[in-house]
Design brief:
The chain is an alpha/beta fold and 226 residues long. Helices cover 29% and strands 30% of the residues. It starts with a helix and ends with a strand. InterPro entries: AlkB_tRNA_MeTrf/Diox, Methyltransf_11, SAM-dependent_MTases_sf.
């Protein structure tokens, strides 16, 4: 590969990165509120009043419940999502700090949070971005703090489609401009190599409809910073 090819590949990845981040603002203009999400996993690990970051808080499904028990901040790249989240929490008589920020460049000091929630976020990043995001999120986590992770697994029925540019294994580009990556457990272990694994499991649900099996696959993990 000559120097021209190198610049071409770098420009292509920069453009793709910009596009797949910007796509979320448009996506949240039509995403519907799915109701509050359970937070049992956090309650078994974190004391009431703990400082928690919801990294990629979206329209506030977890944030609205977390703020009932913890000192919680929600960050998201989409300002549209944050506005929806604020309105939703306000209707429930709740308040949380919302901040427009990228998990690749966090505006927090080191060892700020007792817990970090990152659900359904890292699956929408390229490999180098995922590694940087975990490094950033680990940096702001206190020693002994917990990192809660969830993302698509490779056995999911949706794993497939148009390959991403630049190409990465099990990574696809949807028409909405958003990137979808499907993890293996081995990949998750490597991504969180600097943290202690507390739990790491496959969550697989299957439905049989007219003789066809439809499978949903998530990989869920809880990690602790030494």
């Amino acid at each position: 590969m000559d120097k021209t090819d190198t610049f071409s590949l770098a420009d292509s990845q920069a453009s793709s990165t910009k596009n797949h981040f910007l796509a979320w603002d448009k996506e949240y203009t039509h995403l519907k509120w799915g109701g509050p999400a359970p937070i049992r996993d956090f309650q078994t690990r974190l004391l009431p009043g703990s400082r928690v970051l919801d990294a990629g808080s979206g329209n506030g499904r977890y944030l609205g419940e977390l703020v009932r028990h913890y000192n919680t901040i929600g960050i998201d790249i989409s300002l549209t999502a944050l506005n929806v989240s604020r309105d939703q929490l306000a209707r429930s008589g709740r308040f949380a700090e919302h901040l427009g920020a990228s998990i690749l460049d966090l505006p927090f000091k080191t060892r700020t949070f007792d817990g970090v929630l990152c659900y359904g976020v890292l699956q929408h990043l390229f490999k180098a971005e995922r590694e940087l995001a975990v490094k950033e999120l680990t940096h702001i986590l206190k020693e002994g703090g917990f990192f809660f992770f969830e993302a698509f697994g490779y056995k999911d029925m949706r794993c497939g489609g148009e390959t991403s540019i630049p190409f990465e294994e099990r990574t696809f580009a949807r028409q909405n401009g958003i990137i979808y990556h499907y993890f293996t457990k081995e990949e998750v272990r490597a991504l969180f190599k600097d943290l202690e694994i507390i739990e790491l499991e496959d969550a697989i649900k299957e439905k049989n409809f007219r003789g066809t099996v439809y499978r949903r696959h998530l990989i869920k993990g809880i990690f602790r910073k030494p």
